[in-house]
Amino acid sequence: MVESFSYMVYFDILKKDINSRARNGILHTAHGNVETPVFLPIGTRGSVKTVTNQELKFWGAQMILANTYHLWQRPGDALIYKAGGLHGFMNWQGPIFTDSGGFQVYSLAKTRKVMEAGVLFQFDMDGRQEILSPEKSIQIQANLGSDTCLILDDFPGYPFEHSRSQASIELTGRWAERAIKEHLRIKEFGEPINPGQKLWGIVQGASFEDLRAASAKQMTALGFEGFAIGGVAVGEPHEDMMRAVEFSQAELPESAPKHLLGVGTPYDIIQAVARGIDSFDCVIPTREARHGRLYISAKDEEGREGYTTLDIRLEKFKEDFTPLDNTCDCYACLTHNKAYIRHLFAVDEPLGIRLATMHNLRFYLNFMKKIRTAIEYDFFGKMLSEYKQVE
RNA sequence: GGGUAGGUAGCGAAGCGGUCAAACGCAGGUGACUGUAAAUCACCCGGCUCUAUGCCUUCAGAGGUUCGAAUCCUCUCCUGCCCA
What we know:
Elements: E1 11-16, E2 23-29, E3 32-36, E4 38-40, H1 53-59, E5 64-67, H2 68-73, H3 77-82, H4 85-90, E6 96-99, H5 102-107, E7 112-114, E8 119-122, E9 129-132, H6 134-144, E10 148-150, H7 162-189, E11 198-203, H8 209-221, E12 227-229, H9 238-249, E13 258-260, H10 266-273, E14 279-281, H11 284-290, E15 293-299, E16 305-311, H12 331-335, H13 338-346, H14 350-376, H15 380-386
Parallel strand pairs: 4-14, 5-6, 6-10, 10-11, 11-12, 12-13, 13-14
Antiparallel strand pairs: 1-2, 2-3, 7-8, 8-9, 15-16
Helix pairs in contact: 6-7, 7-8, 8-9, 11-14, 13-14
The chain binds one RNA strand of 84 nucleotides through helix 5, helix 11 and helix 14.
């Protein structure tokens, strides 16, 4: 877009790890700074399920992710625009990242049709059909006023096939050009709610080196202000995901901020940080919390720090009056014990999933803080080599 | 003492002559969940094993009828309710 554009304008790299591509940075947005590497809790429909903005902020959430497709369907971007954009509507003062609806092209594959013009969706709420085009996605995101928005993209599920993935990067590339034009048109002639909104490109190409490289080069050439790596965490092995990250990031500007879409487990995250990823979003901590799965710190036989999970619904916790995680400083751990939280799940008390959600989010947010600290004080290499899921 | 309704897998509860190891719910268990159609979903839940259109032991107990019984008959035990 702008030839002289410098990522330094809004992304500062403060520190680089000596032994890996991990780095600490600050992303400057119209709604404040974000320390990276960062994890974005997901608030698909304008709410991080069961939790308040005040709580999120208190626990250390810096930026949240919302969804174009779902907010478009209900309550509609026109209404959100009137409310002062998503920031005003949900009264979240911090930065917001919006997904383009591209993920729904994948997750709602049964009820949509991909065409060159865009994607024809049949809304699950009322059955009406609408086309989400690359331009439409940008218009909606402009009305939402997110700080970082994404191009509409297309990607296949797993297992990967070269020809299908090639078609996806080509289509995504054509859509990317249309998205940029629309983004610039709105900035120049429209009345965007957030003039500081940045549009990021998305690299696709599954785990194929040539496709990831081609896609990354194309996105870079198009001059995006940041890059997301997509099409991962669709069922492929962890190693394939890391290959996708490596192949993509190898052809992206080092100084640009990079987001890994939809990832992941703590292990996926730390491995991706080591490969140069600056931000993440994932439903794991929130969704799994509602399903009773809690992430807690744990050490292996050798005393190395990692994490494990537990299912709080199990009968074995019926009389366990100890905290979920005695190294955790979340409200749930400081105030309640396993037996009580298990009871709340057993009788379907909403407080159960709320406590579980706050714990998992706090766990993830603390985990990212540990990563930032490790990079800052030069022990990221040690942390990286030791941190994994222990049974 | 008389009458009446019942006794089914851990619990509740269907079934009322074959297609019944027995619906369904709960409890219990296992597994999923990665840019949220997910406070959800799948599977297991008498025993054995080659996990199967397989075998064994079950529907209070005993004994019958029948080719065949959780289902019908007789007696016994137990429980709720009503009458004395």
